[in-house]
Write a structure and sequence with these properties.
disordered N terminus; alpha/beta; about 15% strand; about 625 residues
């Protein structure tokens, strides 16, 4: 009897153990994927979750991984369709990999905080990159459509209200129920950006108090932009602003700007050149942007000088421009002396704002006394080389063309968009090549819209990115759509971004082997023309790029892939894993070797079990 009872107990324990193992295997099956893809999905998930729980989020250093896990660019077998990527927990719903300060200590970076190096880009090594999907925050909704989004967004999409309390006296933003409203105020313009913009135009004696100056002022650089209300209210005047701010104590300001449908970029005036070519903007603006323009012999002001076109303006609204206390007077005196040596003149000064103007030619530079500081930049310095290039304490003189013509020679907007700009010659391009490129992309954009068909309404997309913009003709073909385009030019190709800006468009230099400087879920549409073929030649991971595209793409957003058929097949194998759906596909026609795949990202929320409860 005793033995029988013992055998029965052992059987019960055996069945219980088998049952627990079975439950665990079922969990792995449903979470990581099934069929042939299970092993690949589990491999990705193991690496991802190891980083999530250790050094990438501030814990101990990662241990050495075995050689089978070292290559982040490994691809799944062509016969395998990957079923799932793991989901990151909610701590990473706003992850910006190259601006994540958690990695500074892990990479043992020695950064000078006084130079803002901690706000500059520092990207994780390949073995520290996330291989998981960034989840939306709980209760995320499809964003409010433009133009209503300029004035209100869903609070659930950016669940941060500290700026509403901190800037409550300045009308930055107001929390109202399940929405956040933007009255249009700012640190210097509490009563509305529209009135402030008209005030600047009036100071410059522009007709009808319209800052666009009959189309001659088109591109603006707003540094320290807050939630970008200044840039948002410029759009109605056919002016487009690159609104720039760091990921600082006002952490989500750029995220709010992009959620509103306003062009914006995460960056800082620190030690490196900003990712824009020389002579890109007609106006730079700083409204109490808290920048020490006198530091390091005026190097930050000289960076603004590099970016301004001949005759460009710098509108500066700050206590130094009007206050009478001893410290403000000292700063004003030193800043006035600096800009005078830079050959800037005061175009207007009224109340709390001063507007300086840059010279039209090199004459003033050449007439300065020998040894005047800051000096002119060396003749071999390329003012358009910007990717990971240190700022210089020197003045960028004009090209021979700009000096002789006394300006950039650009047509007013909107003619500027379709007129071949003079700097085409710098790249060896002719006007005929420019016109053919414009016609080609007009036809291609028409094809894209015909392919997508009923999925597209007039307000389906607002924030668009062209990942390889070339001359900007994709964006130009969208001129009748109510969208704006971030035109990205790869750092190792022809530096065509200056042509993009000369057409009255905006954009940035970037290396697609790294993450882009933006928040998750900030673009409604991405256009990826041969980007995957390009990074494969550079030895970078195509899987990493797919995950990066997913990170910055809004739920329900679209990606247009235009590439070799092999790349299209590669992307299609990852659709289930990325939770994307095929919206349209087109094989190459009329001798075109490139195929087109258009996908739409599903709207999904992370399960409760993956939400951070700390």
């Amino acid at each position: 009897m005793t033995r029988a009872k013992s055998d029965g107990g052992q059987k019960k324990r055996l069945f219980l153990s088998l049952g627990l193992v079975g439950v665990f295997l079922v969990f792995l099956y449903f979470y990581y994927g099934s069929g042939n893809s299970g092993e690949s999905a589990l491999e990705y998930g193991t690496r991802s979750l190891r980083r999530l729980g250790s050094s990438y989020v501030g814990g101990d250093e990662d241990k050495e991984e075995d050689s089978s896990n070292k290559s982040e660019s490994e691809e799944v077998d062509n016969s395998i369709t990957l079923k799932s990527f793991p989901v990151c927990d909610d701590r990473h719903s706003e992850l910006i990999p190259c601006l994540d300060r958690n990695i500074h200590s892990q990479m043992r970076l020695k950064l000078d905080l006084s130079l803002m190096e901690h706000y500059e880009r520092h990207c994780p090594l390949p073995e520290r990159r996330f291989n998981c999907l960034i989840p939306p925050p709980p209760r995320y909704k499809v964003p409010i459509k433009w133009p209503a989004s300029r004035d209100e967004v869903w609070k659930a999409n950016i669940p941060h209200t500290h700026l509403a309390h901190e800037k409550s006296d300045q009308n930055w933003m107001v929390v109202k129920g399940d929405k956040i409203n933007f009255p249009g105020g700012g640190t210097h313009f509490h009563y509305g950006a529209d009135k402030y913009i008209a005030h600047i135009a009036n100071m410059l004696n522009f007709s009808d108090n319209n800052l666009n100056n009959e189309g001659n002022l088109r591109t603006v650089f707003d540094v320290g932009c807050g939630v970008a209300s200044f840039g948002g209210y410029l759009l109605s005047s056919n002016i487009i602003a690159m609104s720039l701010a760091p990921n600082d104590v006002h952490q989500n300001q750029i995220q709010f700007a992009l959620e509103r449908g306003i062009p914006a970029y995460l960056g800082v005036l620190g030690t490196k050149r900003l990712p824009y070519p020389s002579r890109s903007f007609e106006l730079a603006h700083c409204s109490r942007c808290r920048i020490d323009w006198l530091q390091r012999d005026g190097i930050l002001l000289l960076e603004l000088d590099r970016l301004l076109r001949p005759g460009g303006y710098f509108a500066y609204s700050s206590p130094e421009a009007y206050a009478q206390d001893e410290e403000d007077l000292r700063i004003w005196k030193q800043m006035s002396a600096l800009v005078e040596r830079m050959c800037w003149k005061i175009a207007a000064k009224k109340n709390q704002t001063v507007i300086w103007q840059k010279p039209l030619t090199n004459d003033c530079y050449l007439e300065r006394e020998p040894g005047t500081q800051p000096p002119l930049c060396r003749s071999d310095d390329d003012p358009d080389a910007v990717w990971n290039v240190a700022m210089e304490t020197c003045i960028t003189p004009y090209s021979e063309h700009d000096h002789k013509t006394g300006g950039s020679g650009l047509a007013p907007w909107p003619e500027r968009l379709t007129s071949p700009p003079p700097r085409l010659a710098d790249l060896g391009y002719s006007s005929e090549m420019f016109d053919k490129d414009m016609e080609l992309w007009k036809q291609r954009v028409d094809t894209y819209w015909n392919l997508i068909g009923s999925k597209f309404g007039p307000d389906t997309v607002r924030n668009v990115m062209d990942m390889k913009a070339n001359l900007g003709s994709f964006a130009a073909a969208l001129k009748d759509k109510d969208v704006w385009v971030m035109n990205v030019v790869p750092e190792d190709g022809p530096n065509t971004l200056k042509i993009v800006y000369d057409r009255g468009l905006i954009g940035s230099i970037h290396n697609w082997c790294e993450a882009f400087s933006t928040y998750p879920r900030t673009y409604d549409m991405l256009h990826a023309w041969t980007i995957f073929s390009d990074i494969e030649k550079k030895g970078c991971s195509r899987e990493d790029l797919l995950l990066e595209i997913d990170r910055i793409l809004r739920p329900s957003g679209f990606v247009i892939f235009r590439d070799q058929p092999g790349v299209i097949d590669f992307v299609k194998k990852y659709l289930p894993a990325l939770r994307w759906e095929e919206a349209a596909i087109s094989e190459g026609q009329d001798g075109d070797e490139e195929a087109v795949l258009i996908i739409q990202k599903k709207l999904w929320l992370a399960p409760e079990s993956f939400r951070d409860t700390e």
